[in-house]
């Protein structure tokens, strides 16, 4: 059913509440592969259960994140550049969010009273979700390229110089619902997202139509296609715009693992998927385009090749 949002802090817009993202059980890999490919083509999003990430590791990092965001503002500011509040990117975009951004392939220090405990929880979480991300990418490449596709996607994140990051977000509850993080696509390969069970994530299945993502089941990871994966699958998988709406009744916390290749890695269409829609480029080149644009920009248009229709 399509309903019209008339919240005074948001534009009048259409919200579609009758679409549920696929929930994919990783216990059956052959079925999971088929369901993932279909979900990436139709929605650009899906959820996975029986994913192998221990609940204890998830709970520990969520506890540490809650503890950090509960600290007074000046104490959080001591974290330096990894910590940010309201500002999104470098071009003036803002949101109702505070966050920590951590590079996952290099040491980091969060100056808290229990920084070693924090770092240990983060490292254990990253190790577990990295393995899950590799498994998902191997299934996806097999789903579109067959067994000859091998580890064409996961090898990009296995590179010791990969640019993957972990982002911890906190959206404080407000007096009214509002947009906490504006519409955007993720520029990386894929994103693995956990939340504290509070609604807020919305995806755009078509222009002007937003679909709320149900946060359940609690055990699931939400996975979405990034711009790089859209390029490498030659547009077969879609990187769709999404956003976060802050709820008036409860704060939302999420943990996102963004899988990215090394800055020098070349991004191009996987073999056997037809005439490329996008030119080859490095991740560093694309990342530069991301940081010089606004949050809602459609960056892939800058890398699209001229139409082949006249060839």
Percent of residues in beta strands? 25-35%
Side-by-side strand order of the widest sheet: 3-4-12-9-14-7-6-5
Structural category is alpha+beta
Number of helices: 7
Termini gap: 43 Å
Order of helices and strands: EEEHEHHEEHHEEEEEEHEEEEH
| Main sheet properties | 8 strands, mixed
Helix content: 25-40%
- What is the CA-atom radius of gyration, in angstroms? 19 Å
Q: What is the 3D shape? A: globular
Uncertain segments are: 1-10
Number of strand segments: 16
Write down the overall mean pLDDT: 91
Structure commentary:
There is one protein chain. An eight-stranded mixed β-sheet has the order 3-4-12-9-14-7-6-5. Strands 1-2-11-10-13-8 form a six-stranded mixed β-sheet, with no helix packed on it. The chain has 311 residues and is α+β, with helices and mostly antiparallel strands. It has helices spanning 29-42, 55-69, 73-77, 115-145, 154-158, 227-232, 283-292; strands spanning 2-5, 13-16, 23-25, 45-49, 83-88, 93-103, 165-171, 178-184, 190-195, 201-206, 209-212, 221-225, 242-246, 252-259, 266-267, 281-282. It is globular. The N and C termini lie far apart (43 Å). A hairpin with a 2-residue loop joins β10 and β11. It has seven helices and 16 strands. It is 28% helix and 27% strand. The model is unreliable at 1-10 (pLDDT under 50). α1 crosses α4 and α2 packs across α4 (115-145).
